[in-house]
Amino acid sequence: MDEFIRVAAVTDVADPGKELIEVDGEMVALFHVGGTFYAIDDVCTHDGGPLVDGELTDHAIACPRHGAKFDIRSGAALSMPAVRPTRAHEVKVEDGNVFVRLRQQAAGPVGQPAAPPAATPVSHSGTSRQETAASSPAPAEPGPPVEAGGLAAQTLSESLIREMLKEVKDPELFVNIVDLGLIYNVSLAAAAEGDGQQVSIDMTMTSPACPAGPQLIADTKRVVSSHNDVSGVEVRIVMDPPWTPDRMTDDARDQLGIF
Ligand code: FES
């Protein structure tokens, strides 16, 4: 669409304030901050959350589902678990009215090529539109078998287990859980019965409601159990301290295009 469309009167939206509007059949979040209007897709690129329902702080809107923040001026993803921008649209004000022109593509993260949002839109009841559609896919199956390769033949240690766990990747971010900073603690103890060692892992998630949690736990157990000297694996999910992006390694940042 290459035309500006009137969407509201200036007085319709408080300053600061936000409104959900429809532009040419698309749901758009309209913001009024410091006397200026901004418009971005009402879609969080993490998992389709409705952004306009979130908390607005200065020029940042927080997704109400898992907390990712977006810059309302550019659509840039400011914090995990979102790594891709949402579309930002052109806005102008004339004669006391607000006009929006849709852009076709989101601007890429800093220094990265553009990446169109691929998330599933979510209704304002908080339920994924995909989840409610008749064509909804079945619940996520456990991931494919994950192998730790030749590492399983080496002497068991905490550092070896961390290396093995690099085979486990977040299914949404495609970055391994060690470089994401999700593994807080690894400990080994002699098994209470028989040979081998019991492995205990404290793992966190990028958000309390991370949809990938069950798969990550299953893959973690599968990889560590592949070592002959492991008799059992316990995975504890801990949210304290909460995960923050600064726990990621530089490799993870490079893969996600975060600088
Ligand atoms: S859907 Fe927005 S942070 Fe997860």
Question: Order of SSEs, N→C?
Answer: EEEEEEEEEHHEEHEH
Radius of gyration, CA atoms, in whole angstroms: 22 Å
- Quote the beta fraction: 25-35%
**The CATH topology of the largest domain is what?**
Rieske Iron-sulfur Protein
| Shape, per Cα inertia axes | elongated
| Poorly predicted sequence stretches spanning 5 or more consecutive residues | 108-146
The mean pLDDT is 82
Helix content: 10-25%
Number of domains: 2
Total DSSP helices: 4
* Biggest sheet statistics: 6 strands, antiparallel
User: Class by helix and strand content?
Assistant: alpha+beta
The neighbouring-strand order within the major sheet is 1-9-8-4-3-2
CATH architecture of the largest domain: 3-layer Sandwich
Descriptive tags:
259 residues; alpha+beta; Rieske Iron-sulfur Protein; GMP Synthetase, Chain A, domain 3; 2 domains; 6-stranded antiparallel beta sheet; 3-stranded antiparallel beta sheet; 4 helices; 27% strand; elongated; binds FE2/S2 (inorganic) cluster
What would your notes on this structure say?
With 259 residues, the protein is an alpha+beta fold. The chain has helices spanning 129-132, 158-164, 213-225, 250-256, and strands at 5-9, 17-23, 26-33, 36-41, 56-57, 60-62, 69-71, 88-94, 97-101, 183-190, 197-203, 230-237. Strands 1-9-8-4-3-2 form a six-stranded antiparallel beta sheet, with no helix packed on it. The chain has a three-stranded antiparallel beta sheet with strand order 5-6-7, with no helix packed on it. The protein folds into two domains: 5-128, Rieske Iron-sulfur Protein; 149-256, GMP Synthetase, Chain A, domain 3. The protein binds FE2/S2 (inorganic) cluster (FES). FE2/S2 (inorganic) cluster binds at residues 44, 46-49, 63, 65-68, 81-82.
